[in-house]
From TrEMBL:
It is found in: Cytoplasm. The gene is ABHD14A. Zn(2+) 1 binds at residues 80, 113, 175. InterPro entries: Aminoacylase-1_M20A, ArgE/DapE_CS, N-acyl_aa_amidohydrolase, Peptidase_M20. The keyword Membrane does not apply. Its main location: cytoplasm. The active site is at 82, 147 (proton acceptor). GO terms for molecular function: aminoacylase activity; metal ion binding. This is N-acyl-aliphatic-L-amino acid amidohydrolase.
């Protein structure tokens, strides 16, 4: 037995597999196809759709479900559209076929990171709209490019633009990581990535000179890097491709009304949460840096961590459970009462 016929498959799973087949793979993602996919989905769901080109060829697609009280800040549901490269010879199935085996596992690049979450957002909104719900706060879903290579042509630019500020985001959700246990991991901060590009030209010298005029405000590690370059001889320089100095932390106690709403739903659904600092670096760091509290959450428990790995896969039941979870989370978050920061 291989793929089930479409008549037997949950329509949310069918949409998920359609999105997985779009080759948004680095280093040359088909962003145009992804944008067209979200435009068509917005039309089907009756959502507003805005396209913001933050750099030539790099479009952030914003789908909007307006709330009933426009004076309140909004909920931002973020996901990135690009996926990391594949080595097809190490895969059991074509990584862009979205093959589903007889047990219900869907094999595809992006199955965990993070096309599942994009579709879970959309399908939760679909369910809530079909049931006739409206909530005080507006819900924006942003689908951004470039995250897997640093977000420099994506969220880093978007948060500085007037279109982002016009969203009036009060709280954001973005990606997390699968958890092989019964628990769900939720991330309240991130590590501070330093990406260093070292350039060495010419013949190596024999100098052993340390930095002169050391600035006291510089970190000792940065002094060490510079001293290594000097010690290597003439023509060796470094530049920081990325340098984060002040990671932002989203409080995970009831002093934070967003956390209170989020954790209350999880408690009501008997979900065990494990709050952690994200071991990677996601677009949440750009969102938090402009003052928006954010959590990283991909509702995948009892699932091996396979992001960026060969045979990346997700069970359809875990995916559908995630839709259920967001269908409960979104009403709670979009109904958080007015806060001082809303005015």
């Amino acid at each position: 037995m291989t793929n089930k016929g479409p008549e037997e498959e949950h329509p949310s799973v069918t949409l998920f597999r359609q999105y997985l087949r779009i080759r948004t793979v680095q280093p040359k993602p088909d962003y145009g196809a992804a944008v067209a996919f979200f435009e068509e989905t917005a039309r089907q769901l009756g959502l507003g759709c805005q396209k913001v080109e933050v750099a030539p060829g790099y479009v952030v697609t914003v789908l909007t479900w307006p709330g009933t009280n426009p004076t309140l800040s909004s909920i931002l549901l973020n996901s990135h559209t690009d996926v990391v490269p594949v080595f097809k010879e190490h895969w059991s199935h074509d990584p862009f076929e979205a093959f589903k085996d007889s047990e219900g596992y869907i094999y595809a690049r992006g199955a965990q990171d993070m096309k599942c979450v994009s579709i879970q957002y959309l399908e939760a909104v679909r369910r809530l709209k079909v049931e006739g719900h409206r909530f005080p706060r507006t819900i924006h879903m942003t689908f951004v490019p470039d995250e897997e290579v640093g977000g420099h042509q994506g969220m880093e630019l978007f948060v500085q633009r007037p279109e982002f500020h016009a969203l009036r985001a009060g709280f954001a959700l973005d990606e997390g990581i699968a958890n092989p246990t019964d628990a769900f991991t939720v991330f309240y901060s991130e590590r501070s990535p330093w990406w260093v590009r070292v350039t060495s030209t010419g013949r190596p010298g024999h100098a052993s000179r340390f930095m002169e005029d050391t600035a006291a405000e510089k970190l000792a590690f940065e002094e060490q890097l510079q001293s290594w370059c000097q010690a290597a001889g003439e023509g060796v320089t470094l530049e920081f491709a990325q340098k984060w100095m002040h990671p932002q932390v989203t409080p995970t106690d009831d002093s934070n009304p967003w956390w209170a709403a989020f954790s209350r739903v999880c408690k009501d659904m008997n979900l065990t949460l494990e709050p952690e600092i994200m071991p990677a670096a996601t677009d949440n760091r750009y969102i938090r840096a402009v003052g928006v509290p954010a959590l990283g959450f991909s509702p995948m428990n009892r699932t091996p961590v396979l992001l960026h790995d060969h045979d990346e896969r997700l069970h359809e039941a875990v995916f559908l459970r995630g839709v259920d979870i967001y269908t409960r989370l979104l009403p709670a978050l979009a109904s958080v009462p007015a806060l001082p920061s809303d005015s």
